[in-house]
Amino acid sequence: MSVWSRLLGSLVLSAFAASAGAQEDYPSRPIRYISPYAPGGSTTVIARLIGQQLTEAWGQQVVVDNRPGANTLIGMSIAAKARADGYTLVSMGAALAGNHWLAKAPYHVLKDFAPIATLSKYENVLVVPPSLPVKTVNDLIAMAKAKPAQVTFGTSSYGGPTHLLAELFNNTAHIQTLHVPYKGGGPAVIDLMGGHINFFFSNPVNVAAHIKNGQLRALAVTGESRNKTFPDVPTFAEVGLPAMRLTNWQGVGGPAGIPKPIVNKIAGEVKKLVEKPDTQHKLFLMGSEPYYNGPEQMAELLRSDIDKYGKIIKDAKIEQQ
Fold it and tell me: Of the candidates 89, 100, 169, 318, which lies 20 to 30 Å from 246 by C-alpha distance?
């Protein structure tokens, strides 16, 4: 064996040993957790729950970095381009499925991210400001039919769950309403309470407190059964619109290529977090449910949602931005 061959072999072994050592020592410095939405929404709440769990388990700070804008493309692009070493994580959810069809993204949803674990799932609640003269879903439909393209709805992102549910509502109820996109659920709820938009299909966490204190009125919830946080609010099936269903989920991922041992280590901590009674109670108060899926199951969930969202987008004739 030549000197160069021995040297090359030694370098390869050294690099392998260094990589293995880095994985065993993970994490040895703070972790960045990107949320592609504005602060104040459900994504930030979930990111902080996961971040706190990782900090308590490993003694390293997890910094939630809100990077809203361009329909989540800014934050997701930063995450996709980050080093795949486990020190950059990103909030992932069903909204990625909409972007797969509608956004000219500088990344591929299925190829450029590593799904790690889901934490929660939820159905949406249709809310309106108390100043709007409607008490029921049928009242809102009647208003929209009387004022075509004048009744407005907000969304947390273009092509995300809040948008697709509103378009599904338009198709199902045979109405035409006007879309007002926001950079997250938090800003949309603020404008809704101020009466600047007329309705919003919200993640329960963003509106639970406002419904209870009378700042917002809940008209109906999606899904098969009533939400335990709003037991007096009927389902859409109860008011004659059973097609209004679109289960959402939230979790954590990172750039593609994160070493499997690190992925599994993070997923294991999320699983512990989901199993904690305190976590389950917090999710319940937010109108969500504990919902754990590991890396492979989360990847399959994302693929399934891409197919489901594609059909809604096609039926609603939503155009790519």
Answer: 89
